[in-house]
Design a protein that fits this description.
With about 425 residues, this protein is of the alpha+beta class. About 30% of the residues lie in helices and about 20% in strands. The N and C termini lie far apart (about 50 Å). One of its GO terms (molecular function) is ATP binding.
């Protein structure tokens, strides 16, 4: 595109003279001032709390030794990587591009975040979590100007295997079993266990953030997107209401503060979908929370309807009930989750074929609506997750919601049709 990252700023292809960091120069191409980034030997990402972990005999994670400090690179990312225009995905706070390391030719994913305190916190927490095999790994971080904006460029491993539920949906005639659901939940649990051990709550555990490393059958499932992750200690409970509605814990919908237990609620919702193919708190309003759906979440009102649940083990249902407790204090911890017989498979988890693949396939259009509405909701709900303001459903101009509003208005005369 005739552009390159040089010396921490984006300029046309040309030789540039060295200038003292922090000084101003004129851009011959644009005729405007460009501020060189001041050199910083220490970054917000450098802190003594970065840790690698080991599992104790009690099944809990403990601090072992500090992680090497992340060094943010100041040179142009294009010195080391070939940056393409291929968009791999859209995260909460930035787009993800396909890039290739020049030395090896290996493919990676590049996430571009406008540099600010929130972006640095996201990278900080994601970096600390990177040693976990079930969390997408950060390779490098650069501080450059991109499109005239000061940005953080995060190089991550590329997850070519796609999303969790897309993989299940595409299985065709091959049955998805309860045993496989158990294996998947254990993998997700390992990521959450790692995070909670270093006092990080992810706060956005949802299917779209669970990706496979490759298309191989034995590919690793990994958690990504730390845009809402927050450090939590006994002195810092999580009081910021940011969430994706289908996977939101009930206390987030009310005035109560919330903590790591909201991740456990999300595990319960994901486990529910894995075992049947649809979420427990379904609404005809897509992902915009209707009053009825909000009430059901707050009251913990859900069922295990037949035929999808008729053959699912009671142990699995009981585990879901424990995860979806409306009172956070009653919800199981991640350690209890990992020690549950259905997860650690001290019991023989049945190889029962589930309806999940069929339901996901049949409801493919609905599932796409869910994802589209989620994208729209994220754009309005998650502008600033320190001072979040959720747009009222009545004020939404989302096309999907508008379409459903019209459909609902046409059925108001028929109470049975209007019920949801």
């Amino acid at each position: 595109h005739g552009e390159t990252f040089t010396g921490g700023r984006l300029t046309p292809h040309r030789k540039t003279r060295c200038v003292r960091p922090g000084t101003r120069q004129r851009s011959a191409a644009k005729g405007r001032a460009v501020v060189d980034l001041p050199a910083r030997t220490e970054s917000m990402l450098s802190n003594a709390q970065n840790q690698s972990l080991f599992a104790s005999s009690a099944g809990q994670f403990s601090p072992f030794y500090p992680r090497p400090t992340l060094q943010i690179k100041k040179n142009a990312i294009t010195d080391d990587y070939k940056v393409t225009s291929q968009v791999l995905g859209l995260g909460i706070n930035g787009k993800v591009l396909e890039i290739f390391q020049k030395k090896t030719g290996d493919k990676y994913a590049l996430k571009i975040l406008q540099d600010c305190s929130k972006a640095r916190r996201e990278v900080d927490l994601h970096w600390r979590a990177s040693p976990c095999a079930n969390i997408v790994r950060i390779i490098d971080v650069y501080e450059n100007l991109y499109q005239s904006r000061k940005c953080l460029l995060i190089v991550m491993e590329c997850m070519d295997g796609g999303e969790l539920f897309s993989r299940i949906q595409d299985r065709g005639d091959q049955a998805f079993t309860e045993k496989e659901a158990s294996d998947i939940m254990k993998n997700i649990g390992e990521a959450i266990q790692f995070l909670h051990a270093i006092n990080i709550a992810h706060r956005d555990v949802k299917p779209e953030n669970l990706l496979y490393s490759s298309k191989r059958p034995n590919a690793l499932l990994k958690l990504t997107d730390f845009g809402f992750a927050k450090e939590t200690t006994s002195y810092n409970s999580l009081a910021t209401p940011c969430y994706t509605p289908y996977y939101v814990a009930p206390e987030v919908l009310g005035p109560e503060k919330y903590d790591k237990s909201c991740d456990m609620w999300s595990l319960g919702v994901i486990m529910y979908i894995l075992l049947c193919g649809y979420p427990p708190f379904y609404s005809n309003h897509g992902l915009a929370i209707s009053p009825g759906m909000k009430k059901r979440i707050r009251m913990g009102q859900y069922e295990f309807p037949n035929p999808e649940w008729s053959e699912v083990s009671e142990e699995a249902k009981e585990l879901i009930r424990t995860l979806l407790k409306t009172e956070p204090i009653q919800r199981m911890t991640i350690t209890e989750f990992m020690n549950h017989p259905w997860i650690n498979q001290s019991m023989e988890v049945p190889q029962t074929p589930l309806h999940t693949s069929r339901v996901l396939k049949e409801e493919q259009d609905t599932w796409q609506d869910v994802k589209e509405e989620m994208t729209s909701a994220l754009a309005t709900m998650r502008v600033d997750y320190e001072q979040i303001k959720i747009k009222a459903i009545a004020d939404s101009t989302n096309p999907l919601l508008t379409k459903r509003r019209k459909k609902a208005s046409n059925t108001l005369a028929d109470p049975k049709s209007a019920a949801h």
